[in-house]
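Quick entry between incubations.
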Amino acid sequence: NAGVTQTPKFRILKIGQSMTLQCTQDMNHNYMYWYRQDPGMGLKLIYYSVGAGITDKGEVPNGYNVSRSTTEDFPLRLELAAPSQTSVYFCATAETKGIYEQYFGPGTRLTVT
Amino acid sequence: QKEVEQDPGPLSVPEGAIVSLNCTYSNSAFQYFMWYRQYSRKGPELLMYTYSSGNKEDGRFTAQVDKSSKYISLFIRDSQPSDSATYLCAMTTTAGNTGKLIFGQGTTLQVKP
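Done. Structure below.
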């Protein structure tokens, strides 16, 4: 039982490049979330999904896109990477009856130069 | 004004000390109050949660919520070096049942042997 897995662990992008951060869960949770964490800034919600086929914006969605075609996968797409997107990205999941208890993946460290 | 404010520290205490971590918030609609613990280069994990006002105790940890003052606290008794981590408060409303968490900036705690 792997829980929440994220790939890659680290990535360096050049300005203007695109990439997809992968998130997969095997807990059969309906709710999934993408956060970014900047030093001293806590976590900010980028996008979230309450089930397959349903996504919505969080606090900081600009420059990102998501899709949710299955319960297990919730990829985050960065288009035209900018230095401001340098951050640590966390994917999280939650059960419908316990949305306050979110289970986080190990994170992806992204640097845009 | 940020919705959730948390003193980023860092906080350094000797082993065995009582630690007090605090957050203030501005949104009176928050109903769930959580404390997440994050070890270095790991994803956050839920430590405790409280629904509405009151106290909750779990071993050496006590969470308090004072909705009248919009103030929450986490107390750690008999602190151990293994408690060294970043502690993040988080809050959410029950509106829409989306689980959108608003995090504080996190307080970094070091417990010295």
